[in-house]
Amino acid sequence: MSSYKDIAWGYDEESLGLDTETKLKFIPNEKELKLFKEEKSNMYKGTWMICLVYGISAIALLGVVFLTDWGKKYVYDKFLPAVLTYVIGAIIIIIYLILSIFALQPRKIKNEFDVMPVCPDYWKLETVSKSRKDSIINNTIKYDGDGKCPSYSLEKGESCSLNVNSNNEYSIKDSTGKIDIVTKHGSELNHKCVPDPMVFGSLTEYSSMNDNLFKSKNKLYMASEFNKSTSTNESIDQDLGGNASNTKNDEIINKAQKSRLINEAMFLYKESKQNNVNTDKRQYIDGYDASDELLKYAKLTGAYKSDWKRPGDTSENSPFGGSLFVDKTKKYEKYPLICNEVYPGLLDKLEKDGKDDLKCELSKTCGISWSKLDCYPNNIE
């Protein structure tokens, strides 16, 4: 027969615990069960000590009141309300503590400390806007900002937009390959690193500095968020990163478009090109194939699809509000990589074996100095 102690702080291992951050149920692992039983055991012992103190003091007080003339005269007659309040309060506290023991559930142990990320040299940490965060998350689960169904879908209504990425092309999964890591409950998108304007100046000045340092080897284009762009109904010249070819020699149009891009610019991005030999590979830097992780990071942070038009659907579809956007006919099969924003949390999730290979690749691709990284571990000088 189980004792009260076993019942009070024992636990059915098949039962579910509660994740305090996501408010979702989970099956605790061995380490979480061990911590839970230790916490419940300590609560059990502490409760008995408190109950013992309250019980002895209450019995002693009642004994003085009812068994001694002095108690009847000085305590009962003068302080009866206070005595009753103390005794009743002690009983309530004891009951509450006992119920707390039974109500305690396992809690999920976080795998990492919630520390602020370290940014590249002379960059600063910023809070990610709701528009950008929502767009990155929605791009992993929805087709576009309209929430429409593709014409070939048998489903109707907004729910269709939740079933468009069956290939998980835009998602980051955990080690099981089943659970999305990038969610509204996660912390990976809470902060981003951006160039400090006190050091690098405006985005235009940062772009000019990049052009002067790297010339054509690290060409950066300007773009805006979709909900802040005035180019949603026109095409931008190809020299400016757009899809229009008939404005190439029109200096007036080109100048006007460039001026508008500068005024609206929120992103500086770099495009990849196809490897001529190994055609399934992309290159941001001539002679160096981009890793699959960097290409996925580019799509995630850009919050774009390769082409916003759906198969079998000729109607225009809208990007998300915070998506990287150039013009209405621009396709994104060149994996535009935003180089003036760095998401350390996302990079950590995409890194393999806890290394900094992806961060090093991003730094090299965008021409970013990040002295915290050890990108040449085998070099001894």
Describe it.
This protein is 38% helix and 8% strand. It has 381 residues and is of the alpha+beta class. The protein has 2 domains: 100 residues; 244 residues, no CATH class. The N terminus is likely disordered.
**What Rg, in angstroms, do the CA atoms define?**
31 Å
Q: How much of the residues is beta strand, in percent?
A: 5-15%
Query: Domains counted in the coordinates: how many?
Result: 2
Shape: elongated
Summed over residues and divided by their number, the pLDDT gives a mean of 76
Outline of the structure:
The protein is an alpha+beta fold.
List the helices and strands and how they pair.
Blueprint lengths: L3 H6 L7 E2 L6 E2 L3 H38 L1 H35 L19 E5 L2 H9 L52 E5 L1 H4 L2 H12 L6 E5 L25 H14 L2 E4 L2 E2 L7 E2 L8 H11 L21 E2 L11 E2 L5 H7 L6 H10 L15
Antiparallel strand pairs: 1-2, 3-4, 5-6, 5-9, 6-10, 7-8
Helix pairs in contact: 2-3
Name the descriptors:
alpha+beta, 4-stranded antiparallel β-sheet, two-stranded antiparallel ribbon, disordered N terminus, elongated, 10 strands, 381 residues
